[in-house]
User: What shape does this take?
Amino acid sequence: MHKTNFLMFRLWFCALGLLAIAPAAWAQKAPELETALIKVNRIWTGVTANGGKASFDYRAGFFPNDFDIIGVRGQEQDLWAGAGLKLAATNWRDPIDTLHAVAIYGPTNDFMPNGKVTERISSYLRYTYTEQEIDFKPVTLDLFGIHDPAKFGDLTCDQLVQATTENILGVQVKRRIMGWSQTFNDDYLILDVEFTNTGADTLTDFYISVESNGANTYRSNGTRPAPGTGENFSTVTTWQHYYGGRVGDSLRVFYEYSADDPAVPGDLMGAPVTSQNGRLINPKFVWYSILHASEKPYTDPADDRDDFLQPKVTYMGTATKFPYNSEGDEYGDKNFWALRGAYSEFFPMSGNTWPGTFHAGNTDETGNSSYAGHPAGTMQANNSKMYCTFGPYLFHPGEKLHLVFANGFSGLDVRTAKEVGAKWKSGALEDPPGMPNPRTGFFPENFAFPVDATEMDRRKDRWVSTGIDSVMKSAWRAKWNFDHDYRIPAAPPPVEKVTITGLGTGVEIRWSAPEAESRADFAGYRIMRRLSNLDTLFFEEIYSSGLEDKAAEHLYVDQKVLIGAQYYYYVQVKARIAADDPLADPLSRGRIIFSSRVLQPTINWINPPHFSQNDLTRIRIVPNPYNINDPLLVKQGWTDQRGIQFYNLPGQVSIRIFTESGDLVQTIEHNSPVNAGYEIWDMITRNQQVISSGLYVVVFEKPNGETAFQKFMVVR
Assistant: This one.
């Protein structure tokens, strides 16, 4: 770098330092420190403006277990939203004019600790949350982006996040992350990255390296109820596999999935929870697919061609375990040694690999039943990543390169995972249909099952293997999406307003969706209901209509409910993909799709009341006696199993609860606007304490002064 450029760099770096040490002087964060959240489908992830690390948590508020979401924590530089893209070149001069035989830099480094953002991060949403009112109370939730449909142009995605940075090598990195809520494309995000050499130097032996896994993630399903002692799973106990390195492969897909822990007795693939009737809580696959990789640098986008042989290097393992020896390495750099493909000499991919490529072996093809049974494997502090490298390129100033990825989470749905686990535990499980290999299912032909696996265990594992087929279908759909310029059929608009009210006649659901009904693909509605929010209880369809179901306001009354039980509801718009739609993939044409699940949060529940009546002697207290282990509480679907219910109340009545010795515990004013004869008490005193065991006296008093007394017992 020349002295003039160096001076400009120093001035820019000092300015950035002032931003870092005096943030209080600015109304906004420095651009390099800004973030965005993607939460529009089954992949929830944070996006850092600078492309580096951060920390994200989605578990508070709304993180729906029925939708089986993976939440990326962001504390490692994984590919999900384009974090940690590493660029490498040889014979490069740094900002202080030192020549490096090889340079490898991510978005943040010693020269730019916070990176360099050249276009601020933006996050746009096509739709907002449905306006909801549950039992006269509005549901409020902060929107995770800016609602502006005009920003999408011809794109059919439902969320669009963009950020542009500059790497220290002088390469501009422009990221677009897109998410679809459309039913057949809601299990992946697309990361579209354009690299431009904006510097003055030609970059020789230019490589782009990425890495990813599912270790640093949360899962929305699997913790309600929590697994028993020793039954939880580790996100780092995985098999990893790359499909795309052999002649005849049709896609480029890296995936990982649950492995057995050889140190623990039994077969733990899929993470069966024996104490909960065997349900599988880790049957899904984390994956990423390469949808496009430039054959060579270009200046005119019309000249950009996909090279199926890119990435030419793939490998997997824990970084500290790669068998590197600096002797004979002309660059003396372990990272450059790995990203150029030298590890494949120690552990080559089997079979007929593409000439001129350097693909290391797959961990599930060693014939070893241990996931750590390969040169870069370990069972101690394991953090095996799925790495790939694009290049080498000769990258001139003004030229561009284009990489496109899909990052996904696919496999058995939660209902099937429960059914498979239950049949496995009872010994009634049969093999899944359509297996390509009768012994290994969809796993490789030489896959080694756990050494102590029974035949019933192997059947369970073969069900897990069907996730490979799911991954390939989703990757194929993502490729179709890219090939059709991100214009696949869009998800229909969500319902605009929903009002849900518990009445003596049942649960009344009112909704309106004028935008959805104005579309040519409108196909009606469905209402989904669930008792409780446990992982093991599912939403069921209780109402379904067709394209003729249009009105300014709709009404449905759910009368098949348990009084006082805890119910959740959401309403979805249906749309039908045209049978001849050229933008739809062939497997989706003519099929029904639904509006976004996540845009109608099921945070608040309904406790259906009973009719009110005026005879105080008919009031009933349930359960009586109260015991937290009473199975009635589970059947009622209560999230918090602490509660006393009062039935057959007048429309207006005061409820005062006393200890046996006469101390006032709590007062409840029941004044139902819908004349509901039901009230629930959370067993918290007026001093915000949980009541203790004992006998309690309840005084019911109507506005006219009429009173009645009852007692209930609490047993712990």
About this structure: The radius of gyration is 29 Å. Residues 497-594 form a domain with the Immunoglobulin-like fold (CATH 2.60.40.10). The chain has three domains: 34-126+138-221+234-312+387-432+467-481, 497-594, 616-715. DSSP finds six helices and 38 strands in the chain.
